[in-house]
């Protein structure tokens, strides 16, 4: 079984988004042959940059602050202009998740921003791949993807509760994202092993 590596590049001002980052990591780890690193980009070191540089996939995560990624995440994104210049993230897989106080809270804008960041780096964006939950009279807030995002995973955390109160459906959705990216990583790695071996013969 070939080994692939998934890095989760996240920030969390008050600990809520870290809960979802941990679930994304758990989902990726559940796919055999996958090593997973969590990189807190607010305090990223040279070792952290090198972890991102050697990963097969990077999953970006940030709280939504004022309708976009947090300032700490934006600082990291600006600092990623160095790998951007070197094209060192080109052709890696990418995905994203965000968390905020409101059900919407303009999280879609944050996910769009994360996808755009990935595109600037020439990465391949992996969507959430779940149908929306909680959108019929028989559905419930305990459904995966209860907030109905397609581009990535969205989570909601009460502003008056600590990280321990993270919603189980959002944790499960985050776990799904990690598993999906790791699975895609293995499929890409298998494809790369064919294409780097030379042209594929077609009868
Ligand atoms: C500066 C700031 C701006 C915020 N802006 C939004 C927002 O635009 N939409 C929203 O739904 N919640 C907003 N919130 C609430 C946070 O998204 C929410 O508390 C989240 O759980 C924080 O995650 P963290 O603990 O990982 O930092 C904001 C919070 C702060 C501190």
UniProtKB/TrEMBL annotation:
<dbReference type="Pfam" id="PF03358">
    <property type="entry name" value="FMN_red"/>
</dbReference>
<dbReference type="InterPro" id="IPR029039">
    <property type="entry name" value="Flavoprotein-like_sf"/>
</dbReference>
<feature type="domain" description="Flavodoxin-like">
    <location>
        <begin position="6"/>
        <end position="155"/>
    </location>
</feature>
<dbReference type="InterPro" id="IPR005025">
    <property type="entry name" value="FMN_Rdtase-like_dom"/>
</dbReference>
<dbReference type="GO" id="GO:0016020">
    <property type="term" value="C:membrane"/>
</dbReference>
<dbReference type="GO" id="GO:0010181">
    <property type="term" value="F:FMN binding"/>
</dbReference>
<protein>
    <submittedName>
        <fullName>FMN reductase</fullName>
    </submittedName>
</protein>
<dbReference type="GO" id="GO:0003955">
    <property type="term" value="F:NAD(P)H dehydrogenase (quinone) activity"/>
</dbReference>
<dbReference type="InterPro" id="IPR008254">
    <property type="entry name" value="Flavodoxin/NO_synth"/>
</dbReference>
């Amino acid at each position: 079984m070939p080994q692939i590596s998934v890095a989760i590049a996240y920030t969390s001002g008050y600990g809520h988004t870290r809960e979802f980052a941990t679930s994304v990591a758990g989902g990726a780890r559940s796919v055999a042959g996958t090593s997973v690193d969590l990189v807190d980009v607010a305090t990223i070191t040279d070792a952290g940059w090198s972890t991102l540089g050697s990963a097969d996939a990077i999953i970006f995560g940030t709280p939504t602050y004022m309708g976009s990624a947090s300032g700490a995440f934006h600082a990291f994104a600006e600092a990623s202009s160095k790998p951007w210049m070197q094209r060192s993230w080109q052709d890696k897989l990418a995905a994203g998740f965000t968390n905020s106080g409101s059900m919407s809270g303009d999280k879609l804008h944050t996910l769009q921003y994360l996808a755009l960041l990935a595109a600037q780096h020439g990465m391949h964006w992996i969507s959430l791949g779940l149908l929306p939950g909680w959108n019929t009279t028989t559905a419930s807030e305990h459904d995966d993807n209860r907030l109905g995002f397609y581009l990535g995973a969205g989570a909601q955390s009460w502003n008056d509760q600590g990280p321990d109160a993270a919603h189980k459906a959002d944790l499960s959705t985050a776990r799904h994202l990690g598993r999906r990216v790791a699975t895609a990583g293995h499929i890409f790695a298998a494809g790369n092993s064919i294409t780097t071996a030379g042209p594929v013969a077609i009868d």
